[in-house]
Amino acid sequence: MAAIKVYGSVISTATQRVFATLYEKELEFEVVAVNLGAGEHKKQPFLALNPFGQVPALEQGDLKLFESRAITQYIAHEYADKGTNLICAGKQMAILSVWVEVEAHQFDPVTSKLNWELIFKPMFGMTTDTAVVEENEAELAKILDVYEARLSVSKYLACGCFTLADLHHLPNIATLSRTQCKKLFDARPHVSAWVADITARPAWAKVVAMQTNH
């Protein structure tokens, strides 16, 4: 197989999602750094990989992919026999798909807004909008109530084991855990146990180390 190249930034939560999947699969890959501060993601040659101008992108021979969750699903299926099995078969796969969608359409929009306000705005010298934070904290609390109910009957979101459904949450959870929002996870015992479990995975530790070395 041709070498895997990941174009992105170690501080990008979407790029981290891909890194975590590759490490779980114990695959070799090359990181091609895209300087977001300099706007490289909005210019050629990156736009040839993703015309929407967002990281990450994956290149493997003549295969070019963008959208982090599409990339993780390609890796999980293409390398099903390598490393951690991140998918499952039959009806359980349908449940996995449900929670992959929940993460993308319910969890991610709210947590991404909170990360932007609480982590990235201060990093870029901008002012946090407390009204936006309060509104999205209230929304996240409702979402986490649904997760608490699910995780009270299942240790993981789908398939009875760690899968893409859990992995996709890691970047935003880890980033938010450095903020006041940590209390929302801690207040829900099953959510808290799940967060402790998935953030302790060796593959995720490697992603964290990439940021530390940045």
Overview of the structural elements:
Belongs to the GST superfamily. Phi family. One of its GO terms (molecular function) is glutathione binding. Residues 2-83 form the GST N-terminal domain. Keywords: Cytoplasm, Detoxification, Transferase. By secondary structure, this protein is an alpha+beta fold. It has 2 domains: 4-84, Glutaredoxin, CATH 3.40.30; 91-201, Glutathione S-transferase Yfyf (Class Pi), Chain A, domain 2 (Up-down Bundle). The chain is built from 10 helices and 4 strands. Helix 1 (13-24) links the parallel strand 1 (4-8) and strand 2.
Assembly type of the shown chains?
Answer: single chain
Backbone shape:
globular
CATH architecture of the largest domain: Up-down Bundle
Number of helices: 10
Largest sheet: 4 strands, mixed
Based on CA atoms alone, the radius of gyration comes out at 17 Å
Would you count the extended β strands for me?
4
**CATH topology assignment of the largest domain:** Glutathione S-transferase Yfyf (Class Pi), Chain A, domain 2
Strand order of the largest sheet: 2-1-3-4
Helix-and-strand structural type: alpha+beta
Beta-strand content: 5-15%
